[in-house]
Amino acid sequence: MTTRGIKALTILLASILTFLAQTTSASACYWGLHQPKEPKLLREE
Amino acid sequence: MIEKLSGTIASMIALSLDLDDDNKDVLAYGAYSIIQTLWSISLVIILGLIFGVLFEAFIISFAGALLRKYSGGVHASSPNKCAILGAVMSVGQAKFSIILGFNSIEKLNFLLCLTSYIVTYYCIYKYSPIDSANKPIVKIETRTRLKNASLKVVHFFLILTTVSYLLFYKNYNYQLLSLISSVSVGQLSQSLSLTPLGHLAINTLSRTMEEIGVK
To answer: Which residue of B has its CA nearest to A6?
Structure first.
């Protein structure tokens, strides 16, 4: 796989993880009984 | 371990894309949510297969999780306790449902269903949403949005239950009774976890797990 391909995959993964983080942050909880500390950028302050 | 893994994934991506620490934390949070979810689901599937209640345990877990997404609830103090407690509770509730006849006796099934909806609507009106120290809900608009979303989830379950009953009385497929009782148990257990007694129960179980060595 080329460097460009790896970079594109990394960007895609980062986008997916950011979307998941924002979706989790927008809700009260998610699947499960544990809630980790919310990151500063997603906190409602 | 899940925290370390999600942190490592986030660090690698942040290094590759030259992101700052705040954005790295967001990536770690996202990675954590997917890893923890997959781990929780895997445990439900494994225990469900071992005890022969895969369908029921999965539906109970799914129904509870969908409602929990908006209503919040009490939390275990670590991801491992969370996954184990969730899986054991889902499988245990599935087994009890079958033993007590909720999946096979129509009248009992209807009684469970009715009780579940009364208790769930009450608990959501009275307690939802429940926040936590790690994820406080500050704005009133957010509280209102989450409470309304919780109610919509229960409305959806109610429609699903009604359609399932109509289909059941058309062709007497008892798998539909299993579906109805599993959804009822899932939402009932989640709504009870919103109550002070639910908090006490989960916290006690969490402490007991810590004492027996589950971190």
So the answer is: B16
Q: What is the pTM of this model?
A: 0.87
Q: What are the chain A neighbours of B138 within 8 Å (beta carbons)?
A: 44-45
What is the arithmetic mean of pLDDT over A13-28? 75
Which among B31, B51, B71 is the end of a domain?
B51
Q: For residue B176, what are the domain limits?
A: 53-211
* Any B CB within 8 A of A36 CB: yes
Does residue B3 share a domain with residue B78? no
C-alpha–C-alpha distance, residues B23 and A11, integer Å: 13
How many Cβ pairs within 8 Å bridge chains A and B? 135
Whether residues B31 and B84 fall in one domain:
no
If asked whether residues B146 and B202 sit together in one domain, one would say yes
Q: CB distance from B210 to chain A under 8 Å?
A: no
Interface TM-score (ipTM) > 0.95: no
Choose among A11, A19, A36: nearest Cβ to B32.
Answer: A36
* Same domain for B98 and B199: yes
Residue B43: alpha-carbon gap to chain centroid? 13
Look at chain B and report how many structural domains it folds into.
Answer: 2
| pLDDT tens digits for range B57-79 | 999 999 998 998 888 877 777 77
**What six digits make up the tokens of B23?**
């954005």
Helix axes B2-17, A3-26, angle to 10 degrees: 130
B128 neighbourhood in chain A, CB within 8 Å: 28
Q: B57 and B47 in one domain?
A: no
CB atoms within 10 A of CB B98: 17
Cβ separation B33–A20 shorter than 8 A: yes
Q: Do B35 and B126 lie in a common domain?
A: no
How many CB atoms within 10 Å of residue A15? 11
CB interface of B with A, residues 20-59, below 8 Å:
22-23, 25-34, 36-37, 40-41
**One domain for residues B4 and B79:** no
